From TrEMBL:
Similarity section: Belongs to the RRN7/TAF1B family.
Biological process terms in GO annotation: nucleolar large rRNA transcription by RNA polymerase I
Superkingdom of this protein's organism: Eukaryota
InterPro entries registered for this protein in UniProt: Rrn7_cyclin_C (IPR048538), TAF1B/Rrn7 (IPR033599)
Biased composition (Acidic residues): 355-370
Domain named Rrn7/TAF1B C-terminal cyclin: residues: 50-217
Organism for this UniProt entry: Aspergillus novoparasiticus
Protein name: Rrn7/TAF1B C-terminal cyclin domain-containing protein
Amino acid sequence: MRLPVGIGDFHRMIMYGDIPYIRITRSIPREMRDKLPQEYLSIMETTRLLKAEHLHKAVLQLSLLYRHKFGVHFPALNLPPILYHYIRRLALPVDIYSAVKRLQVLLGFSFEFPKGLTSRSRPHDLPEIQLITLIVISTKLLFPFDDLKRYPASAKEPTTQVIDWKHWAQAQRQFDSRETARGRIGKGNEILVNERDVFNMTPSQLDEYMNWYENNWLDNSKVSNPLSDLFPVGPTGAESQEVAGPPDEDDEEAIGSMLRTVTQQLKPRKVITEDNSNIPRPGSSYVRYKMESDLPENARPFYETAAKVVGVSLSTLVRAVSQAEYKIMRWLEDQRRTELYGDASGMEFAKFDSSDDMGEQDMTDSDDSF
């Protein structure tokens, strides 16, 4: 069964220590480790933190290797569960689901790894970026970030409800702050602590950090010293209970709570059935953000959260969404030209090279990209 686990989830597991990556040599039995040459150990040793976007690139290269060398084809994303998972994590109405499905057909996204790469790698080469791009565009169409009032023509349309993006951003911040509640460092943040942070840490945070250091950096496989029992390194008794604190809320429970909070704050939108071209309708006055600096105050938190969930940089997500929007714009132009002149040329817009867009860059041109 293809579970809805993405590359961003694997990166979070690595940062949490749930997957061996940091100090991976500790996972090798000591009998084997002592016989390995030092150059082999140095290759396996972690020298820098892994970025989620680099993990995307590694998975893409691995899929190409298996395809070309062994004829193994990776399947497409298991769309229903992973799309539903992203919608819940982003606390969006379920109406986004059907909008994404329609945009997928329109843009021709297959949610598969490419069969090969050209000289320039693009964001849409990655299946999960294709999916998050459609989610962002669907959200902008149904629940735009501006304050312009757009009136649906029917009460059955999903645009009869409006998201309060300020409350949405607040709910997301509360969700993200669960790990650091009660003055804790937070699981996965220990590896990010530097020497400056130590001077501002509380006693409980120091205990939390030292416990993490002991579990990840000290080698317990060595023969114990007879005097080591006189110098315990871990908390015991009441100290361990004080450091641990009360149990945290499960991720799914926290997502459900956040989703209920956002849903309760949805605002109704008036329905105007009158057929009048002067009435602003959903989808009108659509704004395209070409650069990260173009993001308005209400849109930036959503873009940042979506980029973090899928495991890419904000600039990569903005560029991917802009490319897809440009394809849709070209398709609309072709539709209008066909209606006026009956010219069907250029309708295969899914094959259009979006790098021709003004200001488009290769993914390898920025520090945050591949």
